[in-house]
């Protein structure tokens, strides 16, 4: 008992040391270079931090989407049922959704670039253990569910931490385009995850499914270790001025006020009591319903309703994701041109979405459907990205992770429920449909009613947010 108590005390001391020192934001004595020199050196130092958050988030998708790619082999080689795979996937989503807020609070005020690199390593470690268990043929479903859920938990603050690092290096009129470019990381990671996992299994593990977990996990461990020590999380860590000073912008009032507050006070004041954060949480749910409602069901919809081949159905996701890559960059840049009016740009995207979805609903050929899906991907990834960017303007940088995490938690818990379970109940011909507002919705065509409800509600909520953004922008630039 005395030995166990000593271990616990050492663990607590070690944890406190790591959180206070290794992940702390360093604030060395200012070098006094002057803003002209700092501006000249800015891009060189910023791109280091940007490379870390881009590649770390890319790798997080390598150890996330590899499960989907491995499912056929898991059924064939290990006899895992489809139902069991569904529960494993849901365990990841649930832990991910909860962790976005809980771990987001822990990460706030820390070196987020370093923290997310460390969390990538933990997620990769869980994935590595899963792969080894499969190789040893000792992988009970319950244990895989726990390990994969932990992977989801460790990955959960990745997006918010990336936004935090980028926001510390950029200003209101520049961060949109950089976050838009960063957003490509998960599109690419998700697209190549299956290819990389399968290559590793075939070339290094004789085609065994365990290799689809081990190979991407090793990549994640190496990139995470590199990310711990490469680049700075904040210009101030180099002894420079804040990014707003370097580029001659006003430091937001929220950042000034938060500088004298405790972490808990910041959370209560700028997150829990902020109507703008809660409105963005609600808007994100509706946007998530549209995005996931398309990306999850497009292959099945086109095969069942339009009688496409399996290959034609699978290709729909590629066009949607390619549209998303282009949209992330275009809409992020455009919101910068409008001096940070993210909600306005999101509303424009959603209005256009309401028209373009008609091509998806009434299209009959692969060309028509894929063209519509490319347009929908380009449009819906606008608000999906900009809601997170909009949060940045309403909270201090020290509360960005938890506030952005909160919008993600809402999306995963409520949006995911409607987009996956709700759409399945409506579309399944063997079920009785779903009753919404006294109306029975049943069949693929009725899923589009949910699309339009979600689009309209998100526009209404974002219109209110746009008013708050306008007041903030006028106060900052007048």
UniProtKB/TrEMBL annotation:
One of its GO terms (cellular component) is plasma membrane. Signal peptide: none annotated. Coiled coil: none annotated. It is a multi-pass membrane protein. Pfam families: MFS_1 (PF07690). It comes from the Bacteria. The keyword Coiled coil does not apply. Its main location: membrane. Residues 45-472 form the Major facilitator superfamily (MFS) profile domain. One of its GO terms (biological process) is phosphate ion transmembrane transport. GO terms for molecular function: glucose 6-phosphate:phosphate antiporter activity. Keywords: Membrane, Transmembrane, Transmembrane helix, Transport. The keyword Transport applies. It is found in: Cell membrane. The chain crosses the membrane at residues 46-64, 84-106, 118-136, 142-166, 178-199, 205-229, 276-298, 310-331, 343-360, 372-395, 407-427, 447-467. PANTHER family: GLUCOSE-6-PHOSPHATE EXCHANGER SLC37A4, PROTEIN, PUTATIVE-RELATED. This is Sugar phosphate antiporter. It comes from Agrilactobacillus composti DSM 18527 = JCM 14202.
């Amino acid at each position: 008992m005395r030995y166990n108590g000593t271990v616990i005390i050492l663990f607590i001391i070690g944890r406190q040391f790591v959180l206070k020192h290794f992940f702390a934001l360093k604030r060395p004595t200012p070098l006094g270079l002057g803003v002209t020199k700092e501006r000249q050196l800015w891009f060189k130092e910023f791109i280091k931090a940007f490379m870390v958050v881009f590649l770390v988030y890319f790798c997080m998708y390598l150890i996330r989407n590899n499960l989907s790619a491995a499912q056929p082999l898991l059924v064939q080689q290990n006899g895992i049922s489809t139902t069991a795979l569904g529960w494993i996937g849901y365990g990841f989503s649930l832990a991910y959704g909860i962790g976005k807020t809980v771990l987001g609070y822990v990460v706030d005020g820390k070196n987020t670039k370093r923290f997310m690199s460390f969390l990538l390593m933990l997620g990769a470690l869980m994935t590595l253990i899963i792969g080894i268990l499969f190789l040893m043929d000792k992988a009970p479903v319950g244990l895989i569910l726990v390990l994969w859920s932990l992977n989801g938990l460790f990955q959960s603050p990745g997006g918010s931490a990336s936004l935090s690092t980028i926001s510390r290096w950029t200003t209101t009129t520049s961060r949109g385009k950089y976050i838009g470019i960063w957003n490509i990381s998960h599109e690419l990671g998700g697209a190549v995850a299956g290819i990389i996992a399968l290559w590793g299994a075939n070339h290094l593990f004789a085609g065994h499914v365990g290799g689809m977990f081990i190979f991407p996990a090793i990549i994640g461990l190496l990139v995470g270790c590199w990310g711990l020590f490469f680049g700075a999380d904040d210009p101030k860590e180099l002894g420079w001025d804040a990014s707003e000073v370097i580029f001659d912008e006003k430091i937001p009032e929220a950042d000034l006020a938060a500088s004298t507050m405790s972490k808990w006070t910041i959370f209560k004041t700028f997150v829990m009591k902020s109507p703008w954060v809660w409105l963005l949480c609600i808007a994100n749910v509706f946007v998530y319903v549209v995005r996931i409602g398309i990306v999850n069901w497009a292959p099945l919809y086109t095969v069942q309703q339009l009688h496409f081949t399996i290959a034609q159905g699978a290709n729909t996701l590629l066009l949607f994701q390619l549209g998303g890559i282009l949209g992330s960059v275009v809409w992020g840049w455009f919101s910068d041109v409008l001096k940070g009016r993210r909600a306005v740009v999101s509303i424009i995207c959603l209005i256009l979405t309401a028209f373009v979805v008609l091509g998806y609903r009434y299209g009959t050929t692969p060309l028509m459907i894929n063209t519509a899906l490319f347009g929908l991907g380009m449009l819906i990834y606008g608000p999906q990205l900009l809601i997170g960017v909009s949060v940045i303007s309403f909270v201090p940088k020290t509360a960005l992770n938890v506030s952005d995490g909160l919008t993600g938690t809402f999306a995963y818990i409520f949006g995911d429920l409607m987009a996956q379970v709700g759409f399945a109940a409506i579309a399944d011909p063997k079920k009785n449909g779903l009753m919404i507002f006294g109306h029975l919705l049943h069949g693929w065509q009725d899923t589009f009613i949910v699309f339009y409800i979600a689009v309209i509600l998100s526009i209404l909520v974002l219109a209110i947010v746009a008013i708050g953004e306008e007041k903030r922008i006028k106060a900052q630039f007048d």
